[in-house]
Amino acid sequence: MSEAAASAPSALNLSLTSPRSVVVGLLSVAAVATGVWILAGGLQQPLQQRKKPLPVQQSEQLKSDEKKGASAATPGSSAAASKKKKKKPAAVPEKETTAISMESMEEAAASASAEQAPIPAAPAVPIVQANVTATNASEEPKAVETPAQIAQVAKTTGNKLFSEKRYAEALAQYTLAISHVNNNAVFYANRAACHANLGDHLATIADCDKAIEIDPRYIKAIYRRAQAYTATGQLKNALNDYTAICMLEEFQKESSVAITDKVLKELGEERAKEVLKTKVLKLPSQTFVKGA
Q1: Which pLDDT tens digit goes with each residue over 12-34?
Q2: Which of 3, 22, 100, 185 has its Cβ near the most Cβ atoms within 10 Å?
Q3: Tell me: the pLDDT tens digits for 41-55?
Q4: What tens digit of pLDDT does each residue of 52-84 get?
Q5: Spacing of C-alpha 29 from chain mean position
Q6: pLDDT at 175 over 50
Q7: 0.85 exceeded by the pTM?
């Protein structure tokens, strides 16, 4: 190329002598320029082919593969991927990029499967339940009743039966209560009332005696015994009980005072009859006759 350029001025100098030589010189200069242009274009074309960028689709696929690999990979694999990105060449052939993307996808899938692998569950331990022999599990065991509770229940039942005038059944309930608690004056007094309504006055007096022994100021028991004394003709004992009632009530209850007067009158009449039976009849004195 340098030789052609050097020969061109010499040709021009020669061509100044004739028109033909001028035309020949111009053609030679044109030929030399054409050769130079052809040579310059041939050298640039391989460089442009080498520096030709990758297709858009291939570059986008490579970028997406690299992102997937970075998100699914473990910390170690992400560090390796960052090192690969730093050492990435300026231009990679299509076959090599495809191979790299396939390798990165396989590594990402392997790491993801390793992370998402389920932990094997522990073997189930069989639960052994004890057999329950109870007839009804919902029923709670009943509390053991004390003698006082049994006696109170019996007494309540007896009161209900007494109000219904079922005196024999009520008497049995009061007897049950006394068998569990024998130091309650009310139980004896209530049973005495049953005896009185059944006409057994002696049993009434016996139960009232027991009730008064437990509670000497139990007016209801004294009153029932006084009634039983009256029914059996023991007016003196009845008068004593009625008088005791009036004293305990401080003579504030008119009914008690009235019945005491009644018993006292009956007792006086009874005593008068007894005296008249044994009295010797005598004539009045002469002095008494004269004075009349």
Answers
A1: 444 445 667 777 778 877 877 77
A2: 185
A3: 655 555 555 555 545
A4: 554 555 556 666 666 665 554 444 444 444 444
A5: 110
A6: yes
A7: no
Average pLDDT on 231-247 reads 95
For residue 56, which phi and psi values (nearest 5 degrees)? -65, -40
Distances in whole angstroms, Cα of residue 138 to Cα of each of 91, 135, 145, 216: 83, 9, 21, 50
**Displacement of CA 12 from its chain's centroid (Å):** 117
- Nearest 10 degrees: CA dihedral of 205, 209, 210, 214? 150
Output the CA angle 270-272-276, nearest 5 degrees: 120
Long-range contacts for 279-287 (Cβ within 8 Å, ≥24 apart)?
none
Question: What is the 3-state secondary structure of 148-213?
Answer: HHHHHHHHHHHHHHHHCCCHHHHHHHHHHHHHHCCCCHHHHHHHHHHHHHCCCHHHHHHHHHHHHH
pLDDT at position 21 is 72
Q: DSSP assignment of the chain, as one string?
A: -HHHHHHHHHHHHHHTT-HHHHHHHHHHHHHHHHHHHHHHHHHHHHHHHHTPPPPHHHHHHHHHHHHHHHHHS-HHHHHHHHHHHHT--S---HHHHHHHHHHHHHHHHHHHHHHHPPPPPPPPPPPP-PPP--S-TTSPPPPPPPHHHHHHHHHHHHHHHHHTT-HHHHHHHHHHHHHH----HHHHHHHHHHHHHTT-HHHHHHHHHHHHHH-TT-HHHHHHHHHHHHHTT-HHHHHHHHHHHHHHTTT--HHHHHHHHHHHHHHHHHHHHHHHHHPPP-PPPHHHHHH-
Q: How far apart are CA 27 and CA 8, in angstroms?
A: 10
- CA–CA dist 131, 128 (Å, integer): 9
